[in-house]
Amino acid sequence: MIKEHQVAAKIELGKKVPAFKIPSSSGETFALSSLKGKKIVLYFYPKDSTPGCTTESIEFNELLPKFKKENTEIIGVSRDSLKSHDKFICKYDFKFQLLSDEAEELCGMFDVIKEKNMYGKKVMGIERSTFVIDEDGKLVGEFRKIKAEGHAAEMLKFVKSL
Q1: Helix (H, G, I), strand (E, B), or coil: what is residue 130?
Q2: Does residue 41 come out as left (phi exceeding 0), alpha (psi in the -120 to 50 range) or beta?
Q3: Which long-range contacts (CB under 8 A, 24 or more apart) does 30-37 make?
Q4: In this structure, what is the dihedral angle of CA atoms 126, 129, 25, 104, given to the nearest 10 degrees?
Q5: Which DSSP category does 145 fall into?
Q6: CA-to-CA distance for 153 and 59, rounded, in angstroms?
Q7: What is the DSSP letter of 56?
Q8: DSSP state of 127
Q9: Handedness of CA 9, 131, 119, 92 (dihedral sign)
Q10: What is the value of pTM for the model shown?
Q11: Which residues participate in catalysis according to the annotation?
């Protein structure tokens, strides 16, 4: 569904993030351009309602007012369906939107699909990663292989340093 620009090239630090549109838990299609003038913390996580992903999302939700003071929107992305996202949001009362990338187009753009070892089996999945986009749409932060606990606070510190 990434329609504005079909992008084969990977996103690079210091470069403008190509415009994209993707299904959102808000009930509308999310367009990157809709947040021009705001900073964005775009975090990719493996799966709704799993322990690490829940911890990370709850921490972002708890710090949301502090991110808002920094003119920053929090947006989560996984390959889960909108229905799954709705359950996840309702269960934990998240106040930010989650994007559904079932086709892995946004995941591909940000190069977050990696081979992982799950109970001894090799599977392709989302490597927990976060990207910070500035008010002009430029990628100013790239964080990979993240530990879920404490990550939201680290991102808040990073955003405040911009």
Answers
A1: strand
A2: beta
A3: 30/75, 30/97, 30/99, 31/4, 32/4, 32/133, 32/137, 33/4, 33/137, 35/73, 36/135, 36/136, 36/137, 37/71, 37/135
A4: -40
A5: S
A6: 8
A7: H
A8: P
A9: negative
A10: 0.91
A11: 53
